[in-house]
C-alpha cells in the first residue's frame, strides 16, 4: 500500500502572495493649464469661455448705454440742420395776432418727422455695428444697454433739436418780422413713435450680427475631437 498524500501547507498569513487587492485611491492632482482650475486662475481668471462675470457685463453695459445715449447730441444737431423748415405767417385779426401755415398743402411737417426717423435708424445701425465689433459675446445686459441707450439718445436728440431750432413763441416771432412776412416754425416731432426708431434698429441689427457672426457654443451631442474615441 502507498502512503497517503500529504496535503499542501496552508498559505502564510501576511505573505506577499496574498490575494490581489485593488490599489487604494490616492489623492488626485488638480489639472493645470487652461482646462483646469489652476489654469482658470492663471489664464482665464474671471473670464471663461462664456465671457466675463455678470458684474463685469453689467459694468460694460452701463458704459455702452451712456456712450450710445451721448450720440443723441450729434443726432439732434443733424436733425436741426437737415429737417425741412415749416413756413408760418402772422396776421392781425380784431386787434390780435394770429399765426397760420403759409402753405396749407405743404408736406414740410411730415418731412421733419421723416428726417428724424431716418437719422435715428442710421444711428441705430451704426451703434449696433460698433458695439458688436467691440464686444462680440453679446449677452442680455448688452442688449438692454443698446435699447436703453438708443431711447435716451433719441430723447436727447429731440430736445437738442428743439433747443437749436427757432423760438417756440411764434406770436413774438410774428410781431418781430411783421404782418404777412414768413418765418420758420419751431421744430416739432409730431410722430412720437420716431423715438423708438433708434433702439429698434439697434436691437434688430445687433441680434442679426450675433446670430450670423457671433461665437457659437459647441454642440454637446457631437464627440469632442480632442478625446480619443475607442481603444
What is this structure's SSE topology?
Blueprint: H1 37-44, H2 54-70, H3 72-82, E1 87-93, E2 96-101, H4 108-134, H5 140-164, H6 170-177, E3 182-184, H7 197-213
Helix pairs in contact: 2-5, 3-4, 3-5, 4-5, 4-7, 5-7
Summed up, the helix count is: 7
Largest β-sheet summary? 3 strands, antiparallel
Q: Could you estimate the helical fraction of the residues in percent?
A: 40-55%
What would you report as the Rg, rounded to the nearest angstrom? 37 Å
Measured between the Cα atoms of the first and last residue, the distance is 59 Å
**For the residues shown, what is the average pLDDT?**
78
Description:
With 231 residues, the chain is mainly alpha-helical. The chain contains 7 helices and 3 strands. It has helices at 37-44, 54-70, 72-82, 108-134, 140-164, 170-177, 197-213, and strands at residues 87-93, 96-101, 182-184. Strands 2-1-3 form a 3-stranded antiparallel sheet, covered by helices on one side. A hairpin with a 2-residue loop joins β1 (87-93) and β2 (96-101). α4 packs antiparallel against α5 (140-164).
List keywords for this structure.
231 residues; mainly alpha; single chain; 7 helices
Briefly say what this structure is.
It is built from seven helices and three strands; from the N terminus they run H-H-H-E-E-H-H-H-E-H. It is mainly alpha-helical and 231 residues long.
